Amino acid sequence: MGIELPRWVWLGAGLLAGVAGMVNVVGYLGFEHQAVTHLTGTTTLLGSAIARGDMRAASHLGGVALAFMLGAALSGMIIQDSTLRLGRRYGVTLALESALLLAAIPLFKHEQIAGALLAAMACGVQNAMATTYSGAVIRTSHLSGMFTDLGIGLGHALRGMPLQRRRLLLCVLIISSFFAGAVAGALLFGRMGYDALLVPAVLTGATGVGYVAYRYLWALREREYDAGD
């Protein structure tokens, strides 16, 4: 089965994947060298820290995982639905992500682990906002699923099986956007330090405002259409 996604979903997925790439690379290049978006590596390092008795590292890594989960929980409380649909409170969620990233900047500058925790929470908020739609799973903060889907598509192509081209295009979009965000984030970090997080914070805030405006215009058009009937 193919997928049918509105244009705003494609644009949002690409933008948010780029944001996640920026945030993750800033966390990785920072004082703790701690990636904040993908928890497989974080959980692996947590297990390693516990095994060698490094409770300081274990508390930091466990805190990042917990903060990501709490961010996802906040997103779930705000959106309250698993169906991707125009009209949900994505604007509020994006504003929350923007605020968390802005709050993380001064904490990072003072080498406080709370900066990484807020950045991880922002990524959890974002990732939970991406939901299932017509059988397609959209995740913007980590790429394992996207690379897996591409590998499955390659296997199907080698066997001459029909391909879900739009799903594969979505995977390519998210992977390339995350990668571009990581490159841009690394370059910005080299010039601006932790102020590089201003860029993803502004992008998510502006996207939230744009989404609210788009939703308002869409609702207005629907009312005009109903009135015309």
From TrEMBL:
Database matches in InterPro entries: DUF1275 (IPR010699)
Bilayer-spanning residue ranges: 9-31, 57-78, 168-190, 196-214
Keyword set, alphabetical order: Membrane, Transmembrane, Transmembrane helix
Record-given protein name: Uncharacterized membrane protein YoaK (UPF0700 family)
Organism per entry: Aerolutibacter ruishenii
